[in-house]
Amino acid sequence: MPNAIHFKRNELPFIPCKAPGGETKIARVINAKISQNMGGGLEIAENIKVHWTTLYDEILFIHEGSMIVRTDQGEMECNAGDIVWLPEGCTLDYDFTGRRCAYFYALYPFDWAKRHGMEEP
């Protein structure tokens, strides 16, 4: 029978994440060791801008601070408490210029990088 897991904020295993445009800190707590379907964790970004095309479906929950998400459809000012849906294939800019943001993300499939012949940043 599968076990429930409690991840405490002050014990999250943050590691540096080299993103195009800078570096963030990420705790990838929902991973292949835990799930065969989903990925998830907490990421903290500060004063960077990242251009990306999603290779997965993703949900973001802004935990603290703020960020701007720019897509072909326009600009979204995302603040604490907001939820953002990003479908696979969405080209966007995550803009943390002059800002700090901590957000929870959930994505599917968890092994998106392997499926695209990549390693996660």
Automatic annotation (TrEMBL):
InterPro entries attached to this UniProt entry: EutQ (IPR010424), RmlC-like_jellyroll (IPR014710), RmlC_Cupin_sf (IPR011051)
Top-level taxonomic group: Bacteria
Pfam family, one: EutQ
Protein name: Cupin domain-containing protein
Record organism: Dongia sedimenti
